[in-house]
Fold:
Amino acid sequence: MQNQPARGKFIVFEGIDGAGKTTQISLLTAWLKSRGRAVHTTAEPTNSTIGGIIRDALEGLTEKTACEMTALFVADRIFHNTNPVSGIRNILASGQDVICDRYYYSTLAYQGSMTDYDWVSALNLQCPDILKPDLCVFLDLKPEVSLDRIARNRSVTEIYENIDTLKKVRDQFFNVFEQLKSRDRICVIDAGGTVEEVSESIIRAVSDLF
Ligand code: TMP
Structure:
């Protein structure tokens, strides 16, 4: 009988919009690969049918309540964990590391600040099909700076990309981390430094996993 490969590591990146997740995920992926690890990068919302419904709402093409958005993100997340082709569960079991751009911390911070937090939390944290990550890397940036980056880099502005929402969501991320600190491994990184400084801090946090 063949030996099962060691399970990969599951690393999630979080941050308010414009915090620099995409750049840092590429750099961490390159670093892990240079150390001989197989890495699968992914993101939420996913490219599934539900992900498409979510994206339409984020772009303001359709209108959804915070409860509807919560349910859609949770359904998308369950699919993301369990689908047999590219599901996180199977990929980790095959020995690859999974780096995911956003996960349940986002639902707890965004939707959790817009509707009943306990309900949002239970849907995510008590769902047997939603895996707990090995590490959550939170890139922390002041909303003023993140909005400036968004304005310079993108033509379409999404519904949450305004100063009041991002301030509320950033505060909520810290409330969420306080609540989850004995349950989840969370590393808060100042994303205001240079790309290289931020990357070095992330690599230090990820190295502790091995
Ligand atoms: P992105 O711009 O990082 O792709 O994220 C899309 C937007 O969706 C961003 O504004 C955050 C939001 N979002 C939530 O509100 N709840 C969630 O659970 C997730 C995954 C994203």
The CA atoms of residues 175 and 182 lie 13 Å apart. The pocket of thymidine-5'-phosphate is lined by residues 17, 44-45, 58, 73, 102, 106-107, 110-111, 158, 160 (CB under 6 Å). The two ends are 27 Å apart (CA to CA).
